[in-house]
């Protein structure tokens, strides 16, 4: 089989070997740019599982993926570490394509309220209380939760971003970081965002990449969006922005200015410079004409749980985007809305709700869901050429999942197990950039106990809204 | 506070104490029969969390729930076991109100297909292959998964029921067991179901209770349903039946015979004798007139994940049933469709989809969701007077949940943690009928490794459908 012959350079010596695992090497879906798709796969996608294979990692890259029988004792002896893969699955590290990591500090603090109240009465007044220290602690806690759940990369959008970058650096995680700004801040906001991008792009040994972070198409004016597009092009980075978050925002944009939020991204030059669109649940059919020409640099991060919890009356139109060739990634949004940073949960919920929404149980197959969570998520954060698959030359971001749990047995289908049954607690080891960052379900570089204690002490002050102010008004 | 004064007999000596925990003692929702509901709670429900309380268990019952400061050293010394509750939550054991436990053996074997294909092309042909031994192994695996996830009771519906009863007895779990029958079997099926009920009611030291199990309102004819109602009344047991599983079944029943499936339950006397309705996603407004008069003995088990996965175009109408005073419980259906037996997952998905379906983020509050998972689920399986709350006199079925995981921190809201963030892997200890059945996340009475090995060896034979036969035709 072609799959067994992967490993362009079998003689490359590996410093780290995941030995005799089942390997999810790569996935495919019927998207342009996925030439490997078998002709009979249609829109169903494919997931390539290789039984009894080993993964060799040299430095921060995958060196080879080979049948275990082809790995020599000399190679094992030469490796600094050999991870026992028996009864385990090695898969591409998960990618959280849209979050606000420090918001984990408000987990559970604003429940059972609609979107506008969530912002105006709860979250934006509470965020006024946050210090840089809070941001750092929140980011550490969030990164710890993500790594323990097999999430190796996350696209973050928040203020206090240098603190978050510090947490990324210390934790061993990989991230695409965008400093949030509003036009209400004047030029200071966008200046700060650009300065952060210039300082941190390629930071933490390359694990930090950056994007520009205008908050939204309704909180940043067109002039600032145009400047963002120019700066992003100059820096060669994506822009990460909330746009068409739900159908009401699109309706409001059409009523107020006659164009959809996606057309705003087009008209201000952002689509041309490349965008990570957060949510896009308000994307409409007519938006395809704006998005499709830029499918090589535009993707959408979808966070289904918050759309349901906030009763937004719409989820990301995955079918429409799929047919237009636009990548859709999996995200969790901040844990203040999503309650977890569990990308498995988000993938599962997207698959379930897509079947229901389209009244088609054969749509959004397991393999397609895995493609969204791996290759398409990598594409959405602009790393499709080196993340989201376990193939030689790709960056060594790997989650090693324990398949022995009774809730996964018997194992009729690896794909079904990953999409519909696996839990973050099944993630046993995690590797980012060739470095083991979770070993035996424990974080290697972070100790969260102090951060958790300090955040719990800060809770009353963080929740105090008696000051009567808030970050912004939500009135899209 | 009234909550602190619970414990009708503080002097009752406890053989088992859960010491210094946060205790979810009881929940409330705006349903008739919940007289404790505060006037200001409206439809939102309430959940009573008692911080720094201890739970005393004497024999198989809750003896007292008291502030930790009121528990004496003499009481602790007299107990056979004291479980450290610090940093943990003690809550009523979860109840799976509808499942087919042995179907765990087909987990992941029939994915991405609609309901009719799922039955006719996959599950019913595979079930032809099952032996009594398979049923026993499947039940053991399922019960193990449920206990480890804090599920202390389950309502099961399957064939080979004596094997399942044996697994319940060995495992320490509690169950409501119904032997499945079809009219296509003639009198043999119903005879077998009645005989099982007579033999096992009150079995396993009272942990086994029984129901009668006609498969569905479309696979069991009216004569057999009438006989079922008579036998159920004679035995004083519920009938557990699939009815109005989805809107298409209701439409089909109306087209074929001019009545809804719920009216069939009424007309055959089943509502009067008491019913656990599996799914009820096809219950319509007009059905309320049949259901409401029997709300003290009729409930619905809702399994949202399978409705979404099978694109059934409808979920259980929780609002309609709530307003009619009919209890709704949480269920998982069999793991062949649901992939897990995770009641937390099912509760969460029901809460999320209800908000979305009604376009109301304030509906189906966290407290209401907890009420569905505890008191209403207990009512649905006919045990509302002694399960679903941690109050003196109730049966001692308790899940002790570790709250320290980083994915639950910081802890702004216990209710939000339980509904939107907790994982089965957070369940640390489980007590059923006063007996510790899970300690430190390990099963006390079951060893699943042999069952898992044997089931994995059986997989090819179980999946063989070359015989060309099936249990039934799905054609409601």
From TrEMBL, chains A, B:
Per the UniProt entry, the signal peptide is: none
Entry superkingdom: Bacteria
Q: Which Pfam families match?
A: Amidohydro_1
Where does the record place the Amidohydrolase-related domain?
Answer: 90-437
- Output the Gene3D superfamilies linked to this UniProt entry: Metal-dependent hydrolases (3.20.20.140), Urease, subunit C, domain 1 (2.30.40.10)
Is Hydrolase one of the keywords UniProt gives this record?
A: yes
What protein does this entry describe? Amidohydrolase
